[in-house]
Amino acid sequence: MSLSIIRPLTLADFEQSMSLSSFAFQFPLTAEQLEERRATFLNENDYRLGVFSDHSLCAQATLLDLSIYINQQPFKMGGIAGVSTWPEHRRHGYVAHILKELLMHMKQHGHTISMLHPFSYGFYRKFGWESYIEYKRYELGAEHIELLLKQHKHTEKTGTVRRLDSLQPLFEVYEQYAVRFNGMLARTEQWWENRIRSRKKGVVAGYYDKQQQLQGYMIYEVLNREMTIHEWISLTKEAEQQLLLYIAQHDSMVDRVTWIAPSDDSFAFFLNKPRFKQEVIPYFMARIVDVESFIQQYRFNASHQDENFTITISDEHAPWNDGIFQLRIASSGEATLTKKEQVDPNGSQISLSIGTLTAWLLNYQKVEVFQRFDHITGSADAMKRLQLRIAEHTTYLTDFF
């Protein structure tokens, strides 16, 4: 067996990379699409890594330099995408090698957290990533579209819904919405242009209040009598109601409407016939890359006093996170995490993996769930006190990479 090496991809590797991606993700590329991708292949915000054997690409992945909101603060995030391997090179440990290299690269470049869309949750859990988000997918039939019209046609109209020709007006509304959740991207204009415009095609409709302020919008397509809402954001109850009525106004041309919403969304509660298709779908995974830097930026709930916790974290793939730490949380919510040589016999002790810590601090699950499945051990009192310091922001993500 020939010796394999791992290195960043160059423009000379473009054809091999596109060939592997096209095969692995089962999408053929036209000559025009290939040239478009060639022009952005070495985007300064992307880091492409590959494993080679005899100069042939065996496996690859791309690291995206992004930011997400956590507790209403932006965190530098490494988004892992395009993980792929030729069938004859699978089960040789190539992807594992790439992930370890990417973790080191992210730490060196200030990414405190990483996210990815898994092909297998079990596989990525072995490397410290953990499920951090699920969303609701709604599907309304003709009966419920008609019901929407009946329930909202008498809603007071204090503003208007308009179709928009540009995405620019949406930027600020999106950011006001995104900051409410843990895990939403802090989008750049480049992301809007390269990702949203190309992947979320169709009509853009926005709701303006009586002060002519945009308070919500939808990006949607209608095809074969089905309305697919690619993105729906409402900042106010009024905006949500008027956009629901706008959906219902399509009753003569659609028999089905689908969209996604946060996991704690309560739309069905307000519908007179709440029995319609609703799915809860696990989505992305996340893992803390550098736990000390992450905690330094993370904001806990304020309290009447400072608190100290001794925490044992297991992370075999990022040894800088593996060990015993002293967590000090000030009354203000600011915190520090310091690695220790041994456990303080007088301190509270909590033991957990880096994946469990990630899901906990992102507020995806409460400590009771981790206890139920033996994902955390230690002082019940310490766990209870730490849970009270974790802010309750719902996890959500409207993007894909």
Automatic annotation (TrEMBL):
InterPro entries assigned to the protein according to its UniProt record, in alphabetical order: Acetyltransf_17, Acetyltransferase_Eis, Acyl_CoA_acyltransferase, Eis_dom, GNAT_dom, SCP2_sterol-bd_dom_sf
UniProt entry keywords in alphabetical sequence: Acyltransferase, Transferase
Database matches in Gene3D superfamilies: 3.40.630.30, SCP2 sterol-binding domain
Sections of the chain in a coiled coil: none
GO molecular function: acyltransferase activity
Domain N-acetyltransferase residue range list: 4-152
EC supergroup of this enzyme: transferase
Enzyme Commission identifier(s): 2.3.1.-
Protein name: Enhanced intracellular survival protein Eis
Gene: eis
